[in-house]
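Run log, item B.
One chain of 158 residues. Sequence copied directly from the ordering sheet:
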Amino acid sequence: MKSAAPGTVRKPCYVDQAQPTRRRRNPTVLVVDDVQGMREMLRGVLTIIARCRVIMAETSNGGLALAKKDQVDVVISDLNRPGVTGFQFLRLFKQAHPNIPVIIFSGSVFGARKRRAHRLGAFRCLAKPGSADAIIKAVGEALGAGWLGKVRRAANRR
């Protein structure tokens, strides 16, 4: 996926601005976490409740590769994993895709680590285990208010 030029505002690509009558595609969320159970939990929350398309990677390198070949709207990443750390992933990802929001979802995202994540370009930092509402709210804020309202209306109909 090609990124927009630095300094430009990237509109969420789930809305087709040129063809408003076309069916909108669900936003794609890339989840990067070395714990399979956490990836599966996030997939469940994001697909069932938030109606997102979710692609997953166990490693930072896997996440970077998926982002190159797929159109990603938001990333959720852990910080602590073997190999390329979450901080290194965040730095590399933001260099390649400066306009795609990255949400850090980690059990150790407090104080100096949280400040470092924000300096590297994190959109939001959430502490694990976190709630489904907090995850959906953060993804919704990253995608824009219109999308978050749509998800809330759908949840209220259940």
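Observations after the first pass:
- The first helix runs from residue 36 to 49.
- The chain has one domain: 28-157.
Flagged for discussion on Thursday.
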